[in-house]
Write a structure and sequence with these properties.
alpha+beta, Immunoglobulin-like, 4-stranded mixed beta sheet, 237 residues, 2 domains, 25% strand
C-alpha cells in the first residue's frame, strides 16, 4: 500500500515537472473549427506595416498556442493563410494584454464566429464596437441610397442624404469621445481616439488626453495620442 502511494506521488511530481510553463507575458491559445492545414500569423502594426510576431503551422490539429512578450495592451491581428484557397475573411483583430487570451472561431466564418476571452481590454473594445458598428451600417445604407440617387439625378435627395451622413459622423465622434473619457483607465481610450477620430476637433482629443490616468497616458497608445495632438497643433497653426 505504501509503495503504491509513493509511486502515485512520484507520478504526480513527474507530471507537474513535464508541464510547459508560460515563460512570456502573453499566452495566446485558440481553436479554429474545420481548419486542418494552413498557417497562422500573430501580427501587429509597426509604423504603418503589419509585422509577424509569431508563425504557427497547422497540420491536422485545429488548436494553436503562442507565447509573446508584450509591454502594454495593444491591438494584435490573427491572420490566416489558407494556402490554395482564397478568402477575404482572413483577419481577426484583438486587444492583446498580459496574461492568457483564448480565441475560438471557425474556418468557414473566420471573423464572424470569433469568440475572444481573457482580455479585459478586448471586452471594453467589443462594447465600443457594438454601437459604432451600427452607425457604420447606417452610413453604408445611406451610401447605397446616395449612389442610386446619383444615377437617377435626384439632387435634392443627395443633399438630404449628405446631411444624414454628417449627423451619423457627428454621433460617432461624440460617442467615441464620451466612451474614451468614461474608460480613461483603459488603453482602449487612446486607441479609439487615434484609430477612429484622429481628425476630430483638437478640443475633443485634448479632453480625452487630459482625462487619461497616468498609467494609460504613459502607455504606447497614450504616447501616440500625445504625439498626434502635438503634430496637429503644429500643422494647424
Amino acid at each position: 500500500m505504501q509503495k503504491s502511494i509513493l509511486s502515485l506521488l512520484l507520478l504526480l511530481v513527474l507530471s507537474s515537472c513535464s508541464e510547459k510553463k508560460q515563460t512570456k507575458d502573453l499566452l495566446i491559445t485558440g481553436y479554429i473549427k474545420g481548419l486542418k492545414k494552413g498557417t497562422l500569423y500573430i501580427q501587429k502594426l509597426k509604423d504603418t506595416t503589419l509585422i509577424a510576431l509569431d508563425t504557427i503551422k497547422i497540420n491536422g490539429d485545429s488548436h494553436f498556442a503562442s507565447e509573446i512578450d508584450i509591454d502594454s495592451p495593444e491591438m494584435y491581428y490573427l491572420f490566416l493563410d489558407r494556402g490554395v484557397s482564397n478568402s477575404l475573411d482572413n483577419n481577426i483583430a484583438f486587444f492583446a494584454e498580459k496574461g492568457k487570451i483564448n480565441i475560438e472561431t471557425s474556418l468557414d466564418f473566420f471573423s464572424a464566429d470569433t469568440k475572444i476571452t481573457g482580455s479585459k481590454s478586448q471586452e471594453i473594445y467589443e462594447e465600443y464596437r457594438k454601437v459604432v458598428s451600427k452607425l457604420i451600417d447606417q452610413d453604408l445604407s445611406l451610401l447605397e441610397k446616395k449612389f442610386a440617387a446619383y444615377k437617377q439625378g435626384k439632387t435634392s435627395e443627395i443633399v438630404t442624404i449628405d446631411e444624414q451622413q454628417k449627423s451619423i459622423l457627428k454621433r460617432k465622434y461624440l460617442y467615441t469621445t464620451n466612451f474614451a473619457v468614461n474608460h480613461k483607465d483603459s488603453e482602449v481610450a487612446p486607441y479609439i481616439a487615434i484609430a477612429e477620430i484622429y481628425d476630430i476637433n483638437l478640443i475633443y482629443l485634448d479632453t480625452i488626453q487630459k482625462s487619461l490616468t497616468p498609467k494609460v497616458s504613459k502607455s504606447m497608445y497614450g504616447k501616440q495620442l500625445d504625439a498626434l495632438i502635438k503634430e496637429r497643433r503644429e500643422t494647424e497653426k
